[in-house]
């Protein structure tokens, strides 16, 4: 890209052509306050007017987030006129805001408060009527509170970009405008897949996960046998909540923190991920050998399952009948573990720490109960776990590295760890399928062909004379391409992995928010690279494991030898498999 000459505050700089004033200023070392703009134009409505600056020769102040730099441009950020206008913009936003910061879980990570600080917006100069509020808390996953919404539109764009869906849009006009599903329905009455991608970009507390911290506290108080499981992606991001650089793996400190919070047992969902591979791999081979429905599609991601049920009811027989690892771990805890430890299942309380808001919904599904007992009782997002750790006064970086509990369901392999990244479930399955078909381990262990962050990836593998065609998609926009091929009878694949969120669980809707203004200096331009960095944290943990194939997990072998008999057995089906049903999108 060609370079052009500009001046900021009278100082000359050379910057790339095509940047906005906001981006160019940032590269030159100036932070212009901004709010509605997000991620290199992913959202650039220019609506909040928080980023106003003076540009010589322009008529009036310009919104730096949408105004492109050009040769010879002279920009002034700090003039009294620009500073006062930015402050007035923030004060206007605050005048239509509930400002209930004390009770808002976004406090501490709120971009509205950040720009109020940067612009010096302190006084409530603009008083008057406020837009009527909608508080939607009908789903178990997400709360939408329009009294905190600044109408930036980031959520609207993210839903479209990630999924090609337009669940959220601007409703009403003028002063009564709100952001909502069509006709201001609840998320519960829309085809929203509850993935939380919109939550992860919202600058305020207008979209938040529905917290279950109180439920967990109540279980402790009631003297329940409270056991926790953590999903692989959590360890790759939790450190960010405590100021660590993106991609710092914090497995040992996370375990130590959970123990200090009082959990009786700290287990890893990875054990169940290994079980998932045994069940899913066996199901795939049975379908291939016995003329079953192909391609088979993975079923670990509850956002994806929601999408399939709303949009591709005709393709549900393609989904693996395996429950997700979270549910498998819960079912095994309340059955296998409870029996071995002589604890009544109803005295147990299973908590999951997940990178995902859809997991909160998943655990409520009636199909995922065994004898009317839910597999999982509460789901905390990575962000909620961080809140619990902070509230308990635990200094995270001073914690020692501790190991997961090792008894019964404590061991896991590298194959399970990579479940947290797009392509990981496929790679884990291939390691085991290769072994089952050849009787030997794949020499390289890694299946590089299925790795990466491309939206759709495919590979063909020759295993003992059998060609296995596989594909991977993440984000529903990409999944749709593969699903439409199946619908049209054009799919050449045997096995497809689909993950709801772009990047997979490492970038799930419950993960720490990625905002340069709240991150260490070295992560200042992280929007483009945070997925790859978190993925690298999981691949490095895989490399460090002695055992890297699910079928080599000794406790999984024992589970089958002593309890389930074999993968896909009657008992395994009772505990570890489920069914799906087509659903109406707009159901009110
Ligand atoms: S969104 Fe921000 S400003 Fe609004 S109540 Fe929450 S913390 Fe306060
Ligand atoms: S939760 Fe996901 S599907 Fe629902 S509105 Fe948000 S981004 Fe869209
Ligand atoms: S809900 Fe959040 S992301 Fe969506 S428009 Fe409102 S403030 Fe912006
Ligand atoms: S950040 Fe530029 S108008 Fe909102």
Whole-number count of domains:
3
The coarse silhouette is globular
Tally of extended strands?
A: 20
Q: Approximately how much helix is present in the residues?
A: 25-40%
Going across the major beta sheet, what is the strand order? Answer: 2-1-5-3-4
State the secondary-structure class. Answer: alpha/beta
Share of β-strand residues: 5-15%
| CATH class bucket of the largest domain | Alpha Beta
CATH architecture of the largest domain: 3-Layer(aba) Sandwich
The residue ranges in which pLDDT falls below 50 over 5 or more consecutive positions are: none
Largest sheet: 5 strands, mixed
Cofactors, ions and other ligands in the entry: iron/sulfur cluster, FE2/S2 (inorganic) cluster
The radius of gyration computed from the alpha-carbon positions, rounded to a whole number of angstroms, is: 25 Å
**CATH topology (level 3) name of the largest domain:** Rossmann fold
What's the tally of helices? Answer: 19
Average residue-wise pLDDT = 95
Alpha-carbon distance between the termini?
51 Å
């Amino acid at each position: 890209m060609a370079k052009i000459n500009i001046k900021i505050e009278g100082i000359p700089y050379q910057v790339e052509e095509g940047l906005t004033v906001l981006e160019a200023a940032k590269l030159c070392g100036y932070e212009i306050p901004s709010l509605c703009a997000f991620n290199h134009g992913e959202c650039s409505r220019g609506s909040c007017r928080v980023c106003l600056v003076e540009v010589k020769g322009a008529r009036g102040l310009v919104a730096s987030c949408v105004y492109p730099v050009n040769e010879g441009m002279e920009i002034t950020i700090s003039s009294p006129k620009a500073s006062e206008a930015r402050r007035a913009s923030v004060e206007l936003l605050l005048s239509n805001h509930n400002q209930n910061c004390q009770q808002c879980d976004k406090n501490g990570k709120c971009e509205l408060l950040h720009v109020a600080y940067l612009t010096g917006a302190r006084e409530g100069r603009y008083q008057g009527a406020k837009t009527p509020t909608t508080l939607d808390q009908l789903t178990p996953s997400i709360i939408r509170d329009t009294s905190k919404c600044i109408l930036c539109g980031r959520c609207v764009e993210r839903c479209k970009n990630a999924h090609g869906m337009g669940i959220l849009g601007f409703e009403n006009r003028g002063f009564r405008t709100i952001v909502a599903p069509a006709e201001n329905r609840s998320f519960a009455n829309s085809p929203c897949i509850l993935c939380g991608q919109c939550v992860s970009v919202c600058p305020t507390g207008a979209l938040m996960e529905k917290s279950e911290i109180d439920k967990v506290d109540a279980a402790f108080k009631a003297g329940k046998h409270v056991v926790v499981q953590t999903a692989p992606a959590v360890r790759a991001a939790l450190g960010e909540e405590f100021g660590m650089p993106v991609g710092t793996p914090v497995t040992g400190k996370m375990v130590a923190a959970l123990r200090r919070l009082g959990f009786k047992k700290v287990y890893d969902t990875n054990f169940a991920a290994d079980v998932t591979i045994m069940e899913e791999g066996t199901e795939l081979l049975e379908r291939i050998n016995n003329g079953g429905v192909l391609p088979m599609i993975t079923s670990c991601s509850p956002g994806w399952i929601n999408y399939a049920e709303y949009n591709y009811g005709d393709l549900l027989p393609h989904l693996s009948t395996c429950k997700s690892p979270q549910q498998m771990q819960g079912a095994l805890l309340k059955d296998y573990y409870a029996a071995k430890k002589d604890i009544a299942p109803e005295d147990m309380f299973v908590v999951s720490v997940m990178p995902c808001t859809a997991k909160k919904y998943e655990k409520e599904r009636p199909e995922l109960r065994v004898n009317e007992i839910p597999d999982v009782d509460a789901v905390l997002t990575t962000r909620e776990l961080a809140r619990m750790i902070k509230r308990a006064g635990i200094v995270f970086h001073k914690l020692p590295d501790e190991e997961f509990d090792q008894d019964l369901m404590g061991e896991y392999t590298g194959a399970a760890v990579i479940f947290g990244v797009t392509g990981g479930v496929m790679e884990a399955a291939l390691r085991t399928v290769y072994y089952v078909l050849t009787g030997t381990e794949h020499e390289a262990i890694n299946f590089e062909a299925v790795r990466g962050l491309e939206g759709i990836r495919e590979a063909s593998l020759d295993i003992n004379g059998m060609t296995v065609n596989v594909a991977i998609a993440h984000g529903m926009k990409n999944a749709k391409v593969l699903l439409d091929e199946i619908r049209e009878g054009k799919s050449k694949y045997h096995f497809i992995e689909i993950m709801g969120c772009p990047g997979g669980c490492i970038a799930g809707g419950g993960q720490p928010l990625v905002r340069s203004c709240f991150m260490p200096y070295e992560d200042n331009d992280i929007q483009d690279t945070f997925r790859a960095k978190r993925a690298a944290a999981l691949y490095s943990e895989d490399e460090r494991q002695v055992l890297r194939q699910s079928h080599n997990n000794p406790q999984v072998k024992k589970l089958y030898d002593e309890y389930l008999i074999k993968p896909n057995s009657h008992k395994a089906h009772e505990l570890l498999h489920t069914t799906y049903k087509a659903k109406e999108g707009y159901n009110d």
